[in-house]
Amino acid sequence: MQYHTSHRQSLLKTAILWITFSIVPLALSAQNYKLNNGEGEVMVTGTSTLHDWEEVAEQKSGSITLDNTGDLPKINTLKFTVEAESLKSGKGAMDKNTYKALETKKHKQIVFELKSVKSISPVTSTSNKYKVVATGDLTIAGSTNVIELPFNLTLNNGTVLLEGKKALKMTDFNVDPPKALLGTITTGDDIEIHYNTVWK
Questions:
Q1: pLDDT, tens only, 53-105
Q2: Sign of CA dihedral 118, 123, 125, 127
Q3: Which residues make Cβ contacts (< 8 Å) with residue 121, sequence separation at least 6?
Q4: Where are the transmembrane segments (predicted)?
Q5: Selection from 101, 110, 175 nearest residue 136 by Cα
Q6: What is the domain partition of the chain in residue ranges?
Q7: What pLDDT is recorded for position 22?
């Protein structure tokens, strides 16, 4: 009886050790990085009948999980969020019209969430910079579309840099381009999102 008990305990310890060592390499291979709000920039640019305009996101957050064990980094997860009312143009009236168009009382955030990576390739054979084309769900003002997002990914001493730009139409997300001065100034439907973000 004593032998059977000790033998069973020995088998149990062996099984636990085997499971632990099987899981550890998986945990070590994937690294999670958080977006640093204090560095980098996310900016939206557009046009109007009066002048071109730009708005900068003052509050942004997100996370990315990378597996660096292969020849090319593998992006397992990517989620990026901008607080809608943190978009600032430096002009209060314009910001107010933007928040109204985005219905920020109901829809507090603009969110991109990765679905898949279509392609990833090194910029040069010796660099740690890669060209990526990803697809994901982009949600603006409560409407979600699948978009293709191109960007450069750079790995640098525990830091990840993501930079790129993406053209969009407001009406694709059921957003009416903002108007001002009783409709005499109209914002163009086409906008462009420029981003240069730092993840640690």
A1: 999 999 999 999 999 888 899 999 999 999 999 999 998 888 999 999 999 99
A2: negative
A3: 72, 130, 131
A4: none
A5: 110
A6: 31-199
A7: 47
Q: Retrieve residue 158's tokens.
A: 């525990």
The letter for the amino acid at 167 is A
- Please state, in angstroms and rounded to a whole number, the distance separating the CA atoms of residues 127 and 122: 7
Q: Can you spell out the DSSP letters for 157-190?
A: TTEEEEEEEEEEEGGGGTPPPPEETTTTEEEEEE
Alpha helix ranges (H) inside the chain: 2-29, 92-102
Evaluate whether 62 touches 136 at the Cβ level (below 8 Å): no
Specify the residue for token string 């107010």: 96
Put simply, whether the predicted model's pTM sits higher than 0.90 gets the answer no
Q: What is the model's pLDDT at position 5?
A: 53
Measured on CA atoms in the order 145, 34, 108, 163, is the torsion positive or negative?
negative
pLDDT band at 16 (very low <50, low <70, confident <90, very high): low
- Residue keyed to tokens 């019209």: 97
Element of type H or E holding 81: strand 74-83
Pick the CATH number of 31-199 from 2.70.40.10, 2.40.128.110, 2.102.10.10, 3.30.465.10: 2.40.128.110
